Amino acid sequence: MIGKIAVAALIGFCGYTYLSIRPPPPKICGTPGGPPVTSTRIKLRDGRHLAYKEKGVAKEEAKFKIVIVHGLGDSKDFDPPLSEELINEFQIYAVFFDRAGYGESDPNPTRSVKSEAFDIQELADTLQLGNKFFVVGISLGAYSIYSCLHYIPHRIAGAALVVPFVNYWWKFFPAALAKECFEERLRQNQWAFRVAHYAPWLLYWWMTQKWFPCLRTQRNFDVLSEPDQEIIKRRSTEPPQEGQVKVTQQGVHESLHRDMIVGFGKWEFDPTDIRNPFPDNEDHVHLWQGYEDRFISYKLNRYLSQQLPWIRYHEVPNAGHLLIYNATLCETIFKVLLSSNS
Asked: Distance from CA of residue 65 to its chain's centroid?
């Protein structure tokens, strides 16, 4: 009798564990029971859809065509403070899109660093952006830019990596430096990154369990640097962005968790494996890093730029992780990128 009870208890425990670590199926936009489709979308070759939003001058009149890639927990409704004066001066056409699983873009169960570049290329081709276009990636969205520079460099006219995330397991980092910067992160963030890297199958459970503290992001005011806190205070007085409530509507695993798994997972290449796509001009790729960034260490991005001298490194004092929301800095980022390609 005791043996039967033990076996039953073990089976019950295994069943509970399996259900706890298994993410629920996504609620795909436009399917029965899923959120409605309210955005303009394109259909990719593999059948998935990408939702996008356009900003700026008419595409046919644009001198500069830019694909802007949002970061973790964001969407195509991310809206950098670019003035109409700047847009008209440079004749900018910009397209923002929901990355796979975010907002109204279909999830990609085989999502990878490589797939990001080809999603961007297919979006650009469908929208007829021409043989070459610019790319700008924010925070975790910067891994899409590294992907473009590695897999489709012939399509890229110029690139900006803004407060780009770092994968602490990139092999070119000196072990002592990577360890030092990793340990400067919040303890719960360290564990979330470890789980994403070493046990991605467990990440859904880790990010949803209530026993241990988990990831803290820029939405947690108390962990922000002073420059970022000032930006949050100012933005709190502005109307909320309508599309932001849709960021994880298809499932937190298909958006946030897959993003972390890909970004902090095992890459097919290191950034130092990327060849200079612009050997005749070293002003085409820019990296912007806030010195007061408490989420991404300036030490690692500074070191990366030293290994890749064709990346022009801009370290901004008195700026944090949210520097893209500083109107002056935001416009400077775009002016520098586009002026060097005029």
From this structure: 20
